[in-house]
Amino acid sequence: SQGRTVDFKNTIIILTSNIGSQMIRENFEKMTDSNRDETIEHTKTDVLELLKQTIRPEFLNRIDEIVMFTPLDKKEIQQIVELQIRGIRKMLASNGVKLTITPSAVELLAEDGYDPEFGARPVKRTIQRMILNELSKDILAQKVDRDHPIVIDRQGDDLMFRND
Fold first, then answer.
1. Orientation of helix 21-29 relative to helix 36-54, angle to 10°
2. How far apart are CA 42 and CA 19, in angstroms?
3. 54-64 pLDDT tens trace
4. Which of 5, 21, 39, 123 has the maximum number of C-beta atoms within 10 A of its C-beta?
5. Cα–Cα distance, 159 to 97 (Å, whole number)
């Protein structure tokens, strides 16, 4: 309220919304490789119609483009898990701890960390709960030796830590 003028030329403003998220989830649960393009197009049409019913036309007409993101697939979630693990590996390496993780452990973290409604947001919490919290306990209890490489592996529906 200082009366300053701001130049918005060459500016991109990104707005996000959960409008239609229930519809998107329901439609994408039925999606297969053979009907993927058709399902995405049909869902986008339905969501745009819902936007028109929900948001005032004066505002909606000022939006240049509406992008609907498709849900992440299993492979993409696993890539996100691997990125998060890379950060943990770096952090632990700075404290002299070498960490490796098996593909089956990555798969478990991706399964537990993915929620169709929230996408990959829960991945970080899952990694915190299943790796950082548990690994800290195991190191403190001397179940694993921090001076030797530590391997994270899958054991059923849980993770286990062992020295390599």
1. 160
2. 16
3. 999 999 998 98
4. 123
5. 18
Digit-coded pLDDT (tens) for 24-74? 888 888 888 888 889 989 999 999 999 999 999 999 998 988 888 877 878
How many angstroms separate the CA atoms of 24 and 84, rounded?
Answer: 27
For each of the domains in the chain, give its residue range(s) and CATH number, in order of start.
1-71 (no CATH), 74-163 (1.10.8.60)
Question: Residues 6 or more apart from 51 whose CB is under 8 A from it?
Answer: 17, 19, 20, 60, 66
φ, ψ (nearest 5 deg) of residue 115: -130, 125
Q: What is the pLDDT of residue 120?
A: 82
d(C-alpha 119, C-alpha 100), whole Å: 25
